[in-house]
Amino acid sequence: MKRKILFVDDEPNILQGLRRMLRGMRNEWHMVFAESGEEAMRILEGDPFEVVVTDMRMPGMHGAELLKKIQKKFPEIVRIVLSGHSDQELILKSVRTAHQYLSKPCDADTLKNTVARACALRELLKDGTLKQVVSNIDTLPSLPKLYQEIMAELQSEDASMDKVAKIISGDVGMSAKILQMVNSAFFALPRHIENIAQAVNLLGLETIKALVLSAQIFRQFETKGVPESFLEKLWGHCMGTATFARTIAREENLSREAVDDAFLAGMLHDVGKLVLSTGLPEKYGEIIRRAAENGISLRDVEDEVLGTTHGAVGAYLMGLWGFGDNVVEAIAFHHVPGTCPARTMGVLAAVHAANALEHASGPEDLKTDETQVDREFLNKIGVEEGLERWAQVCETEMQ
Ligand SMILES: [Fe+2]
Ligand SMILES: [Fe+2]
């Protein structure tokens, strides 16, 4: 069946250009073009669509507003922004409402691949078995409060780093934990960090946000009866994966956002393990035993027994919380990047490789899980020669 895609732009020339550029897609896509947000909403009311690609700066209803409306009324639709360079401010407004961002001019291939990736991710998250497994879990963890407070502060008119630092410092236990992490070998900082404001200054807000979020999520599981030794080991592995993923992303000159996303996705790539082990304790205990006894990967046993995996479950949770596609995709496919239609070096590849490298250097009993690197995938996206170099840089960083 053809995929239905709605393009929205106030400039007829741009729509005409898209129409021409995407002529080759006619057999796969059913494309409709709207000249305003209002017209787009009218079309969506009458007809179901899978994807909307919209401009940002438009008279009347602008792109961010349109996306917000679509998110509310038709949450299943994939929302992609295609905007000009001068639209930075408007783009910031759509941070939590768009799944992907593209900038003009955009070639047919990039657009095609972005749509394919966004749809593949939605399909994975819509999977019936995954939904069933998740619905069998009584209480999914909630998006941590402190993190929500930070986000709310950042969205306020007079947001400041100082205030964010104050919010974190207000939670004494959390700030002690953050300072402990920041001063650990993972960050290898030249001097001791005394307070949260310094940490934000030195490591950047995104890194501190990722640390707060993951520390709080792990804390939620502490009270749910996950054995402390398991939590601690997993925490160490996630910290390691996050720092490796960030290093790899930097090595490959990815954008700043991608570097930050790689760190966050690395921190939370195995969160599905926590969800499953608390939500289905008996079944998951059995899965862990079977994997260890037979020396097969946890992911494979999960797939066999549950019909889904910790990657998919973790991605489902992050999707529910409204995180961007790059992060959700990296978590979803971190063991099986080859099943994702991604075709360029990005967050997924960084997290996939970082996870494998970290497992290979980590404790013996976690090793069976995930040391395999998908070389074919790295080859496909043109970075296979990078692997050795990444391993070296990551190793030196940890010394
Ligand atoms: Fe994993
Ligand atoms: Fe992992």
Do you know the CATH architecture of the largest domain? Orthogonal Bundle
Shape: globular
Question: How many structural domains are formed by the residues?
Answer: 2
Strand arrangement within the widest β-sheet reads 2-1-3-4-5
Number of strands: 5
Q: What fraction strand? A: 5-15%
Tally of helical segments:
22
Looking at the structure, the CATH topology of the largest domain is Hypothetical protein af1432
Question: Can you summarize this structure?
Answer:
The chain is an alpha/beta fold.
Architecture overview:
The chain is an alpha/beta fold and 399 residues long. It has two domains: 3-126, Response regulator (Rossmann fold), CATH 3.40.50; 135-397, Hypothetical protein af1432 (Orthogonal Bundle), CATH 1.10.3210.10. Helices cover 62% and strands 7% of the residues. It is built from 22 helices and five strands. The protein has helices at residues 12-21, 37-46, 63-73, 88-93, 108-126, 128-135, 145-155, 161-170, 172-182, 196-203, 205-222, 228-251, 256-268, 271-279, 281-294, 298-306, 310-320, 325-332, 347-361, 367-370, 375-380, 386-397, and strands at 3-8, 29-34, 51-54, 78-83, 100-103. It has a five-stranded parallel beta sheet with strand order 2-1-3-4-5, sandwiched between helices. Strand 3, helix 3 (63-73) and strand 4 form a beta-alpha-beta unit. Helix 11 packs parallel to helix 13 (256-268). The chain is globular. Residues 269-270, 310, 334-335, 370 line the site of one fe (ii) ion.
